[in-house]
Amino acid sequence: MLVTGGSRGIGLACARRFAALGDKVAVTYNSSPPPEGLLGVRCDVTDSAQVDAAFAEVEEKLGPVQILVSNAGVTKDTLLLRMSEADFAGVVDANLTGTFRVVKRATQGMLRARRGRIILVSSVVGLLGSAGQANYAASKAGLVGFARSMARELGSRSITVNVVAPGPVATDMTAVLGEERLAELTAAVPLGRVATPDEIAGVVEFLAGESAAYITGAVIPVDGGLGMGH
Question: What are phi and psi of 112, to 5 degrees?
Fold first, then answer.
């Protein structure tokens, strides 16, 4: 299996969980390599050539990618009037078009095998919206339409495509928000806390397993109730 953006946070939690199950796990990273025990492949998902090279290396060392977790993503938060076109386009390129690149490459082997699991990591922000995150919210919302289109295209080959939409999670991405903003977010969550990365990974594991073989095109919220009804 392959987890993009798997050297920390939710991606690393997913990689560790699947490795503990005995799966052969590879992760892509951009700057910080993953801990020992995981096959780390440097890859910038905004570069199609790097995506192709990463898959080729994983296929050579571990075999075909049967499970893909598309998790790599970035944020460049600011209010719309201050947001540059480059900041908007860059986030969409990494989060949405980057997912297109890795999914397109992964499906080559899955179509030949006539099976596969694709899980896209979105965000509750993609469903609710968030002031100062127009670029991030647009990219994460786009994953839903993309996943559902892929679910219809690939379903006849026993390939499922689903979306996990986490709420606030205790990762480096939320740590930079500061205590005041994090407290505001936590107060809005009915369960009154942020998630651990492993709680997100548990849902990803379920979607990749046999128990979820008849689930495709679904958006699974793992957000403590923050986005309920959306």
Answer: -65, -40
Domain assignment of residue 195, yes or no = yes
Instruction: Let me know if 178 is exposed, middle or buried by CB neighbors in 10 A (0-12, 13-18, 19+).
Output: exposed
Each residue's pLDDT expressed in tens, for the chain with a length of 230 residues: 999 999 999 999 999 999 999 999 999 999 888 888 899 999 999 999 999 999 999 999 999 999 999 999 999 999 999 999 999 999 999 999 999 999 999 999 999 999 999 999 999 999 999 999 999 999 999 999 999 999 999 999 999 999 999 999 987 766 666 777 788 888 999 999 999 999 999 999 999 999 999 999 999 999 999 999 88
* Interatomic CA distance for residues 173 and 197, integer angstroms: 12
Q: Tokens for 29?
A: 């990273």
Cβ atoms of 115 and 67 closer than 8 Å: no
The pTM of this model reads 0.95
Range(s) of the domain holding residue 157: 2-222
Residue 56 in any domain: the answer is yes
Catalytic positions, please?
Answer: 136
- The first and second tokens of residue 212, run together, are 């979820």
Strands of the sheet with 67-70, listed across from one edge: 39-42, 26-29, 2-3, 67-70, 116-121, 159-166, 219-222
Cα-based torsion angle of the residue sequence 141, 68, 94, 228 in order, rounded to the nearest 10 degrees = 20
CATH number of the structural domain spanning residue 107: 3.40.50.720
